[in-house]
Amino acid sequence: MSSTHSNLKKLILVFTAKGVKGVGGLLLAWVLAKKYGAYGSGVFFIGYTFAFLCASFAQLGIGNGCLRYIPQLRAEDESNLSSMWTISQLIVGAFALLLSAMVMLFAEPAAGLVFKDVSKWAYIFCAAPIIFFWSLTRINIMVRQSLGDMSGITLVENLIIPAGMLLFGGLSFVIDFSVLVFLATVTSLYFISFLYAFFSTRKDYNLRFSLKLRSSLRVREILIYSIPLLVIAFSQTSLIWINTLILGAVGAVVDAALFVAAMKVAVSISILLYTFNSVYAPQISSAYARDDFDSIRSLYRDATHALTFCSFLLLAVVAVYAEVIMNFFGAQYDAGAACLLWMLVGQICNCYTGPVGYLLILSGKSKLEVYNTVAGLVLNAGLCLLFYKTFGVSGAGLAFCLSNVLINLLRYFQCRRFFRINWLDRTQKYFIGMQMLLVCAFLLLNFYSVNRELLVAVLSAVYLLLNISNVSSLISKLGNQH
Predict the structure, then answer these.
(1) Residue 232: is its pLDDT beyond 80?
(2) 71/76 Cα distance (integer angstroms)
(3) Torsion of Cα atoms, 368 then 372 then 377 then 379, to 10°
(4) Residue 359 and residue 277: Cα distance in Å, rounded?
(5) Which residues lie closer than 8 Å to 442 by C-beta, 6 or more apart?
(6) Nearest to 52 by CA among 219, 206, 227, 244
(7) How far apart are CA 95 and CA 93, in angstroms?
(8) Most buried residue, 218, 300, 331, 469, by CB count within 10 Å?
(9) No. of H helices and E strands in the chain?
(10) CB of 34 closer than 8 Å to CB of 261
């Protein structure tokens, strides 16, 4: 998507694409649950998640380095775009290839980290090439994103991969193949995605292979900035999915499957936050480069208002129908309803505090964000190990909730100190006050056995009607921003 398009158009496109990805992820979990049961779904997601987290590590934080420096370098000389594209892929590609080879060579010891039964090493082996393919695919996506182009995210991450997984999942009902074969086909899908991302990016921006940066900025400085972001990127991704691997290693594979299903639903809610982060990141970076803190506060305020208003509807509906949603995956998944509810509480804080993590990263506070994300990851993993023994899979959801709430509050107060942002302004107070009244009204009327569907419909209509002026104002602001 062109950077000349308004923020509103970018948000609509990215949200639509990410919505398709979210729905695709849910349907994939459903297909695997119906075809292979909770156990088969669990072994697939444990192997796949391990490779995906390794890929996050293999990217070395270079993607965020692209977000930070490509706009600046391109402004100095157009040829620097080709140079950054080439250098980024060489560095990440070499490291990712080495890591993929090591995982394949030592697949059995690696399996011992995430499976109680190391005989499942083949799942690690088949997923290992994803580390290389996804690392390079993601670099191409981030290069485009640094230019305000959302098409890389839209087509590759949110359409091609989810649609391909669903296609393979549907074929598994027609052609009877094992979970291992299904994992191998998903790996091949990442290879296709890499080819598309690489050649389309090179063609669309007329890029050439070049190692020469025409700037006072050197590769060493970019690496010094980016390497700490490796910890951030890895910890942020791990914070979401590490509990899957912990449950596979110390618990039951079935519990890992329940957690994945609940997480797929919960993460779908945060699509809004990811959408705003994707669109606003280049603008926050540019504003900081100009020392324009008023623009940073304005961008944060607009994004947070929109997130608070919109996410409430999604969060409320999922909370009301949590048991129905988990039962959608199968009778074995009913035990995951409480886990889902805990995750939703964590997502409330995640969405309502807005893009505080991105504010820190893109405004020169990346080292501070390293401490934040590592603290969140360690806290989540430690609480998961502690609570799982007592509460089962619900304990994993509770660990995710507490770590998200505490770390996002920490980020907010840090941003408030550095940028003087004000989260609880007049509009925000209005949104939250109204939302609390609606929640209390639902709980009271539901206690007296008023029809649940009628309550949801009426209270949602009331919420929308009372916010017509706020919605119009938000749409107007987003339509005028580029």
Answers:
(1) no
(2) 9
(3) 140
(4) 10
(5) 316, 320, 455, 456, 459
(6) 244
(7) 6
(8) 300
(9) 21, 0
(10) no
Q: What are phi and psi of 223, to 5 degrees?
A: -65, -40
Q: Is 426 exposed, middle or buried (0-12, 13-18, 19+ CB in 10 A)?
A: exposed
Structure tokens at 159: 């359409």
Say if residues 189 and 164 touch (Cβ distance below 8 Å): yes
Q: What CA–CA distance (Å, rounded) separates 50 from 232?
A: 17
> Would the pTM count as exceeding 0.90?
no
**189 in Cβ contact with 134 (< 8 Å):** no
Q: Which residues contact 13 (CB under 8 A, 6 or more apart)?
A: 1, 150, 154
Residues 342-376 as b/e (b if ≥16 CB within 10 A, e otherwise) read: bbbbbbbbbbbbbbbbbbbbbbebbebbbebbbeb
In the structure encoding, which two tokens stand for residue 235, read together? 């910890």
Cα–Cα distance between 129 and 105 in angstroms, integer? 12
As given in the structure block, the two tokens for residue 82 are 């080709």
Distance CA 248, CA 391 (A): 16
Task: Extract the tokens encoding 444.
Answer: 């009271």
Which pLDDT does position 284 carry in this prediction? 80
The amino acid at 178: S
Backbone CA torsion sign across 231, 404, 162, 50? positive
Q: Tokens standing for 75?
A: 């402004």
Which amino acid is residue 222, in one-letter code?
Answer: I
Token match 């999915």: residue? Answer: 241
Question: Using CA atoms, how far apart are residues 58 and 134, in angstroms rounded to an integer?
Answer: 9
Q: What phi, psi does 216 have (nearest 5°)?
A: -70, -20
Name which of 387, 360, 388, 392 is nearest 373 in CA terms: 360
pLDDT in tens, 50-85: 999 999 889 888 887 887 888 888 888 888 889 999
Are 270 and 38 within 8 A, CB to CB? Answer: no
Structure tokens at 373: 């994300």
Q: Max CA-CA distance within the chain?
A: 71
Residue pair 144/84 in contact by the 8 Å Cβ criterion: no
- DSSP 3-state of 349: helix
**Is the alpha carbon torsion for 264, 268, 269, 270 positive or negative?**
positive
The C-alpha torsion from 324 through 328 and 334 to 338, rounded to 10°, is -60
- State pLDDT tens for residues 391-415: 999 999 999 999 999 999 999 999 9
Both tokens of 68, joined, read 């930070």
Q: Which residue has the higher pLDDT, 477 or 309?
A: 309
